[in-house]
Specification:
Blueprint: E1 6-10, H1 16-24, E2 29-31, H2 49-53, E3 62-66, H3 81-88, E4 93-98, H4 101-115, H5 118-126, H6 129-132, H7 136-144, E5 152-156, H8 157-162, H9 164-174, H10 200-203, H11 206-214, H12 219-223, H13 226-232, H14 243-264
Parallel strand pairs: 1-3, 1-4, 2-3, 4-5
């Protein structure tokens, strides 16, 4: 059993699932079977150190996991990740995937609609969770209090989408590994439709459970077809934002994105902010 020396720390709805699987294509990288282990904060933070080590049974040069909750310092459910990581694995390499914060915000709203109860969605909006998760410089500050920038690789999701082979080889260089020559190694995307299908709170409802039991066919398969579910449940479609909403978000994100550009030297040319 071993400790990891690589963590993908987020951000939510920025392509971390795909990156987790791209990293696993390298012969010198072992990525955890369960993508989001949430050991340093979140659902498994009460597990033992031996339990965490058991997630990395291979003595590969690079061993990693990808828990996007590590970069939600604003959320009271996920406190103190950076400090806990530093205490246990101070030499770890960190990868932080970022995306146009307005587009990430739209995807976050769909994820909340699909996977959370109405009360949880209401809390997410009232607590500014959907906006703050995309405050990338703010989230990085907590890690920079404990790690030098040399241990952190910020990746633009646009590059991962449009220049995948080059971007992955840059990441491999950051990890001290040889490049992969075959671009087809990364010719797939993961979790593209994670928010398709019937919202979770509907699946748990009495009418849905009754219909599933009584239907003379595979009711779940039918209802999980995007053509059906997205017609029945408007929230599964990314919301169209009004000009006023976009302007409001641009104003909210402007300072943070400027700080991120200064911190990384990256221009994020495709972003709306």
């Amino acid at each position: 059993m071993y400790l990891p020396n690589l963590l993908v720390i987020g951000a939510m709805k920025c392509g971390t699932s795909s990156l987790h699987n791209y990293l696993a294509r390298h012969p010198d990288i072992f990525m955890s079977e369960e993508k989001e282990i949430n050991f340093f904060t979140g659902s498994n933070s009460n597990q033992s150190l031996d339990w965490y080590k058991a997630q990395f049974p291979v003595d590969a040069p690079i061993r990693g996991e990808s828990s996007q909750n590590y970069s939600k310092r604003h959320n009271p459910l996920f406190p103190g990740a950076a400090e806990a990581i530093k205490a246990l694995i101070p030499d770890v390499k960190l990868i932080y995937v970022v995306r146009d914060p307005i587009e990430r915000y739209r995807s976050h709203k769909v994820e909340n609609y699909h996977g959370e109860t109405p009360a949880a969605r209401q809390w997410s909006e009232a607590s500014d969770n959907q906006v703050m998760t995309g405050m990338y410089a703010y989230q990085l500050e907590s890690f920079l209090d404990h790690f030098p920038m040399e241990q952190i690789k910020v990746v633009d999701a646009d590059s991962l989408l449009n220049h995948r082979h080059m971007t992955m080889n840059m990441i491999f260089s950051f990890l001290g590994l040889e490049w992969l020559e075959d671009p087809d190694s990364f010719s797939f995307k993961t979790n593209e439709n994670s928010s398709n299908g019937i919202p979770v709170h509907w699946q748990k409802s009495l009418p849905y459970r009754a219909a599933r039991k009584l239907a003379p066919f595979d009711f779940d398969a039918l209802m999980n077809r995007p053509a059906i579910s997205r017609r029945l449940f408007y929230g599964l479609n990314k919301p169209d934002l009004s000009e006023d909403e976009v302007d409001r978000l641009k104003e909210r994100y402007a300072k943070d994105v400027a700080q991120l550009r200064a911190l990384t030297g990256m221009d994020f040319a495709g972003w709306q902010v």
